[in-house]
Hints:
The chain is mostly beta strands. The chain contains 5 helices and 15 strands. It has 2 domains: 2-29; 53-342, Beta Barrel (Porin).
Amino acid sequence: MRSSRAWLAMAALFTAPVASAADPAAQVPAATAATTPAAPAEKMGREMNGHLFLPSHLIDDPFSYTAFGVALGMGSGTALGDTINLTPPLTPPLFGPPQREYGYTGLGIGVAMNVRILEYLSARAVLGTIAYLGSGDGAAFVIGTSARISGSVGVKGSLPVGENFRFAASLDATYGPVLGVLVSQGIQDVINSCRDPATGCTLDPSQFLQQSKTITWVGGLSGAWAPLPYLGVTMNAQFIAPTKTADGAASVSQTGYTVAVMADFDAKPLLAWLPVGVNLAYSLTGPVGGVGVTRTAEYGFGIYYTGRPHLALGVELDWRDGRLENQQVSNSMLAWLNFRYYWN
Length: 344
């Protein structure tokens, strides 16, 4: 009896360390056994409620971020102009009613840099140009050629409201010269001067070359709503005040407004294998008061790659109804290649 008890005691002494070594939890202090919390996922500046908002050149968003963007556009359109009267005998006016449509080709380039200074404050600078050239029968004479080069700087302050809303206020200043060659108007001016003996028949290059400079102040309010991770809505309202100065003429100040709305859909939150997003945008610019800016309506549809949160790359089609720089009524369609890279 005593012998069996001794053997049991010795077995307990030898098996206790073995059991302790076999149990990892017994060797790890309680403080180090606790799981280290995972680092929070990076949230992009254009992200809200799990939705990454898509960009559009037709609307301003309310977000604060650092990003670099490039936009290249090319397309065509038509404009109303006077009919060219070249049937012998040639009698003035050589350009006159009835009006007809002429074709033209358009090209646009834009570069933008946005820098987030504080969490809800950012600054931006934009440099862009848009040009058109009359193409087709007589279009080069009636529509001519025009180019607008513009640069702007601005600041934007934004504030989130809950998880689904964000609002912002912005102020921008834009400056740019406009250069235009209008052959038909120049020829008509020369003919009119030759018919008047008091003025004499003179040829002034400025009759063919139009030059003006415009500085525009823009104050805006914008908002965004993300009801679902795959759906976003953006709204924008701006008050615009351009002052245009033509060579040899007094400055003309105008006022106007721009309202815009955009809805964008991202399929990736629903189907991880489909990183594709689309947006629909509408922008309307109109005059305020008797002396106002030209009314212009634009419609946009874009399709984007959404596989990387730091990248927005897509093509946007833009339909525009308005006027050219020479005030001819026109409509056009441009295809824009939009690239934007976000750091935060």
